[in-house]
């Protein structure tokens, strides 16, 4: 049986108390900034602030996900967004089966809108990506389910095309960098990771360093990267769909 991390009542109340404290110290701007942090969200999520306002932390989306990739935002990462759903691609990727959306009772995850099947965008972490040091690793390109989302440059290094990529996370899941670079704790454990299109990290040109990723992964940019508009994308375990096409 899939293990689901549960949010204790005490933890939920603690998050609420911390939010009140933030209001007292930094005003509503501080709360809004934390609420709208650039986490990668499940399909159907609008802005971070809207999701935080609508989500009742019931965790039904976590329980509904057949791949175990929906997980709560940890308290250490956000006091305000604590317990709302984010995505972790260590053990799976999203094929947009939409079971999380179907399970959501509050509309925090919903059909319609640009975010319905656009979760984020992959970025190459150049100091973790094996292809930047040694030739031959093309796993992310080979495993990407959307043709054209990842190509190789003249040195056989991966390049992500945001207008094709929908942030499904297959590339991050299969990236072998964690085992090949286990000797170096200073870099990310994946050579390619998915970030929110609203994040500073999403605006990196071609690639990003581990340090830049850490500072820009959850930081919200002034303007979100445009959603994908091209390619044929996963649409459940047995179907595909052109970008912008109906479900």
From TrEMBL:
One Pfam family it belongs to: Fer4
Keywords: 4Fe-4S, Iron, Iron-sulfur, Metal-binding
PROSITE patterns for this protein: 4FE4S_FER_1 (PS00198), 4FE4S_FER_2 (PS51379), TAT (PS51318)
CDD domains with a match to the protein in the record: DMSOR_beta_like
Skewed-composition ranges (Basic and acidic residues): 232-241
NCBIfam families noted in UniProt: TAT_signal_seq
Protein name: 4Fe-4S dicluster domain-containing protein
Lineage: Bacteria, Bacillati, Actinomycetota, Coriobacteriia, Eggerthellales
